[in-house]
Structures are given as C-alpha cells and as structure tokens.
Q: What sequence folds into this?
C-alpha cells in the first residue's frame, strides 16, 4: 500500500486531496496533518512514501518543514511535492528546490498533472528504497564475510562454497587462484574453466579497464596506516557468460597483505545485479520524465505569456489591415500588400498556436470526428502539391469515433506529411493507415494513459530514416536537423503535445536508410460524428449597444471601429471596475459585453461574476490572446455566451456577435 502524507492548514484542501488520491491511485492511504509541526511528527512516525506540502501555513511554512524533513536522516529520503496557491516566480522555485523539494506545483493543480507527479515520486521512492536495501545488504555481507574469512580458512572455504554470491581470489597478475562454485549459476563457466585463467577473458573490455584501474591502487596501500588496510573497493562490472550473453555485477574487492605489508593477493565478492541495473535504468528514465515534465511546465508558462502579448499585438495589426481593406478593392495598388500582411498575421498566430499546443496542451474546439475522413481530406490536399510523392491509403472499416480538435489533428498530420516529404527529396512512397485497436494495461503503462479502445494512425515514408540519437530528441522543442532558417524545431514537438493533450501517445520507428514510421493513438469515443459547418463569407451587421471592455489602447481602437462599421452603438471600459460601473448604470440599454479575460486590476473572471450579480441574463462574449482552455473554459462553464481568440477579423467578430444576440 502507498502511504501519502498531505500537510495543509486548510481542512477542506485535505479532504479534496485525500479523495482525489484515494480515488485515482490504487491501494493508496492518505495521512493528513494541519500544521508543519504535526506534519513533521507524522512523517517520522508513519514514514510515508511521498509528501504533499502546502507552502503558506501559519507558524511554520512549507519551506521550513521541507528543510527539516531533508535534514532528518529518518525522513530525508521521502519525496516532497510542494503546493502553493500563490503565483510562482523563479525565486519561489529556487527557494523550494534549495529546501529540498522534489517538485513545485501551483494551485489549482490539474488533477492529471498532480497524479502524474505523485505516481512518479512513488515509483522513484520504491526504486530508491530497493536500491538502498540492496546496497546496505551487500555492504553488511561484505563486512561480515571478510571478517569471518580472515578468522578461519576453513570457515572461509565453507562459506565460499555455499554462498550464492561468487567469492574469488586472484594473484597480482589478475589470474584467478580460487573461485566459488556459485560462478556456474552466474555465468555458466565451471570452476575448472576459470581457475588459472586471467580476468580479462571473462569481462568486457570497458569493465576490464575499470577493474585494472581500481586494482592497480592496491600496492599503494602499503604506505598507509594499519587501519586503512581493511579498505574495500566497489565496482560494477559486465561479465561475459559462456553462451556469449552478459550480466551486470557488483564486486567488493580489496588486497590481502603478507606479514611485511605487501599486497600479494586480491579478494573479491561478486553479486549479480542485473535486476538492480534495470531498476536503476527505470529510475533514471522516471527522473528524466519528471525533469521533462517540469521543463514543459516552465516552457508552458513562458509560451502562454508570450502568446497572449503577441496575439494582442497581432490583433492590432489585423484590425487596422481589415479596416484598410474595407476601403479598397482588388484593383487598388495596395491591395496585394494588405492581403500579404493579413497572411503574415495568420502565420504569426499559427506560431503561437504551435507553442501553446506543445507546452500548455491547448485545445480550441473538440468534436466527435471520423479520422478516415480527416486523413482523406488532409492527404489529398498535400498530394496535390507534392506530385513526386505517391500516397497509399488503407482505412479501417467502421473506424471508431474520436473526440478531437480537428484543426490540431490536421496540424499533426500535415507536420508528419511535410517531414516525410523532406526525408524523400527525390520522391518516394507515403503509406497512411488507420486501425481500431484495444490496448491493455501492460502496453499503455509507459505512456500514462488509460487502457481501452483506441484508433491507431500510421504514417510511413521510404525516406532517409533516422539514427537512434536523433529519434531520442525529435520531440524536443526547437530541436531540428534542418539547415538554419529552414525549420523552427516546433513541428514534431507540437505534434507530441497535441496528441498527449488528447489523452493519446505517439511513437516513432526508424532506421538509417530504411525510412520512418510514426504511429499515434487516440482514445475512442462513444459519441456520433458531428459534421463540420461551413462559415459564411460576409460581415454581419447589427444595431444593438455593445460594451467593449479591454485595457489595451490598440485593441479598443480597432474593436471600436469594427463595431461602428457593423452598425453597433459602442460604450468603452478600460478595466473591469469601470465596466461594472458602466453596466450598473446602463444595463437596460446594453445588449452585449465584449470582455477581455486578462486585465491588471480585475480579471475577466471576477468582472464576469460581478456583472452577473447585477444581471444573471447578461450576454457576454469573452475575448483573449490565450486559447479557450484554462480560465476561459471556467468562465464559459459559469454561463458566458461565447469566446473569440485574438487576433480576429471583422467577419469573425460579426458572426460571433450575431450568434449570441440572435440566440
């Protein structure tokens, strides 16, 4: 059973966290404490497997609690995940890490992120406990056996020949003079096949180099004091078995001295640690995943802020260009330049979507979808522009429906198509396949997704392929093998983020010179496919009164002109507080509010709540440089009527307004 200690001075928080952990983590027991002092006592008494620690607590805050936990020998090995409702800055993270925290999360914590962190720390704790236990056990055995061997040769021989570990001696030329019978079970060689043969024959060259370097230090001990002559050396060696396979071992070795203090023999005890080696590799893998998750969180925070400010900037450019285009036709000398600016604005917006989809897992509009139709559409479009690529399609009949953001999955497919094309500069074959599959717990365990029905999509090319090193890095942000200026390194990174955010996973299989296959899996849905609606192409007008709320001067200027040209009467508020005052006075004549989500004095969420207190039936269109995820979704769930993401043009705004006002 996994024991988790939750320390928080708020009883409600402890109740929520306990319910979440016990519901989402199998065989989990949550222990609670409502102060730092109580938490320290329970940590020592209960020895939990991980600790969730709130930072802001009266008396003793989370930093001091974490510091004391890490200073105490009995609790220092327990992983600590620090939680805070206060906005995280780099200084806070540094303070948390300096205190010894293993992770640092901001409230409200996404349930899946919290569970993933807790599961990771639990696995790391179990691996560390197993490693410490084995290490302590080995050290105790070495000390005990060396002592007994020196006391009695007979006792030594009896122990050596009945021990599971391999006990051996060799002369100073590294030739075996004795080895215990347990060597047979270790590597398949008999005692007779090893005695009077040199060590070099039985270990890999790299391990032999390690062994000789350690053993060569033995004669130098002659110059040390008597108390230093019982020192042993620990080393990990890869043994070559009789059948050609290898096993990893840990060896405790040390010199044996004659009465004159000269090293005349080497004594060693060797243990098979192949399973432990696997545990160490698993721990390293988990730690890498943990560090990657923290890196993605940091990138996400940065990308979110950049995207918001950049989209506001693009909104101003898009708005002014849209207004200028209203006064010119296709024969005007500036028409092509203005439409070119619009195209560049859309490319800029696409770049921010790439960043957000990778780092923050943003989705925009999710609908039940037939992936066969989506792949037909995207591959046909790609095939018309790349005639040198021959596309082969194999579709699963009665394909499972999936809940996806169609635009983002098309983005994933186009990224894979383009990568395949670039891997086949002289043309080649592109194979696309869909398949219904059912994945069990064993298969999905490394990917942290739920078992069940999935749709598998395979994209295979006959291109140049990739080596192992490149395959390990292709999903990293900004990693690219292309020449300078020919790639941002965000294509596959954003594809990885999009698939992961849809509760799926993606794999790559490749060999240099033999092509590449990408396979991604998306969970099946029980819903029916929703057909895409074609949006109209004209600006829709109105005569109602709109309250525009935004703190950016450029956005206010552009949106006001948009609304006036569409026929609306416009009121302006440059903050949430001002919006509440204006609406309270003129609520009877204001038909709709366009509300910015991020403002300095009062957020869009708080402003919306206060306005709804005045009029529960108020109509509000939320506007933001962020996507519909996060705060925007929460506001929509509270009853907000719609969402439009910056940058938008006049047509898009007009259609959103009529959709809300005419409903």
A:
């Amino acid at each position: 059973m996994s024991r988790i200690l939750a320390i928080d001075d708020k009883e409600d928080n402890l109740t929520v966290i306990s319910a979440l952990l016990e519901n989402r983590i199998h065989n989990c027991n949550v222990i609670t404490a409502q102060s730092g002092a109580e938490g320290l006592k329970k940590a020592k008494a209960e020895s939990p497997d991980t600790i969730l620690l709130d930072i802001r607590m009266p008396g003793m805050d989370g930093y001091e609690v974490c510091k004391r936990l890490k200073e105490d020998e009995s609790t220092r090995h327990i992983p600590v995940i620090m939680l805070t409702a206060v906005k995280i800055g780099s200084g806070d993270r540094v303070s948390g890490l300096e205190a010894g925290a293993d992770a640092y999360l901001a409230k409200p914590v996404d349930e899946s992120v919290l569970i993933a962190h807790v599961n990771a720390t639990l696995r790391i704790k179990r691996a560390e406990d197993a490693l410490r236990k084995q290490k302590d056990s080995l050290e105790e055995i070495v000390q005990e056996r060396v002592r007994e061997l020196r006391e009695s040769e007979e006792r030594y021989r009896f122990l050596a020949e009945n021990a599971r570990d391999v006990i051996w001696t060799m002369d100073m030329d590294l030739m075996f003079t004795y080895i215990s019978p347990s060597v047979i079970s270790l590597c398949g060689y008999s005692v007779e096949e090893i005695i009077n043969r040199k060590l070099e024959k039985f270990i890999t060259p790299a391990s032999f180099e390690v062994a000789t370097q350690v053993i060569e230090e033995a004669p130098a001990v002659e110059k040390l004091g008597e108390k230093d002559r019982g020192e042993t050396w620990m080393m990990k060696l890869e043994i070559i078995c009789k059948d050609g396979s290898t096993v990893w071992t840990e060896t405790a070795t040390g010199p044996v001295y004659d009465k004159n203090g000269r090293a005349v023999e080497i004594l060693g005890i060797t243990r098979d640690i192949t399973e432990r080696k696997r545990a160490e590799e698993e721990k390293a893998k988990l730690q890498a995943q943990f560090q990657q998750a923290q890196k993605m969180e940091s990138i996400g925070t940065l990308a979110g802020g950049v995207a918001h400010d950049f989209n506001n900037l693009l909104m101003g450019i898009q708005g002014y260009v849209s207004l200028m285009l209203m006064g010119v036709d296709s024969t005007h000398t500036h028409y092509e330049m203005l439409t070119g600016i619009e195209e560049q604005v859309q490319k800029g917006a696409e770049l921010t979507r790439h960043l957000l989809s990778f780092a923050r897992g943003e989705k925009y509009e999710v609908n039940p979808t037939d992936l066969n139709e989506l792949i037909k559409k995207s591959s046909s479009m790609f095939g018309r522009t790349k005639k040198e690529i021959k596309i082969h399609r194999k579709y699963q009949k009665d394909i499972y429906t999936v809940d996806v953001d169609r635009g983002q999955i098309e983005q994933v497919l186009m990224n894979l198509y383009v990568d395949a094309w670039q891997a086949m500069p002289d043309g080649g074959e592109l194979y696309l396949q869909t398949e219904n599959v059912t994945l069990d717990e064993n298969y999905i365990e490394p990917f942290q997704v739920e078992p069940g029905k999935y749709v598998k999509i395979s994209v295979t090319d006959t291109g140049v392929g990739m080596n192992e090193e490149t395959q390990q890095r292709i999903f990293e942000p900004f990693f690219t093998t292309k020449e300078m200026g020919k790639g941002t390194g965000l294509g596959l990174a954003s594809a990885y983020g999009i698939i992961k955010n849809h509760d799926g996973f993606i794999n790559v299989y490749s060999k240099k010179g033999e092509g590449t296959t990408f396979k991604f899996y998306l969970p099946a849905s029980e819903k029916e496919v929703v057909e895409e609606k074609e949006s109209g192409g004209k600006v829709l007008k109105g005569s109602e009164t709109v309250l525009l709320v935004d703190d950016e001067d450029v956005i206010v200027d552009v949106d006001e002109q948009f609304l006036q040209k569409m026929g609306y009467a416009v009121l302006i508020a440059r903050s949430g507080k001002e919006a509440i005052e204006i609406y309270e006075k003129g609520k009877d004549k204001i038909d709709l509010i366009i509300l910015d989500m991020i403002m300095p004095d009062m957020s869009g969420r708080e402003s919306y709540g206060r306005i709804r207190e005045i009029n529960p039936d108020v109509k509000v269109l939320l506007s933001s440089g962020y996507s519909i995820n996060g705060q925007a979704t929460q506001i929509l769930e509270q009853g907000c009527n719609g969402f439009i993401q910056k940058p938008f043009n006049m047509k898009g705004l007009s259609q959103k307004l009529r959709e809300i006002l005419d409903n």
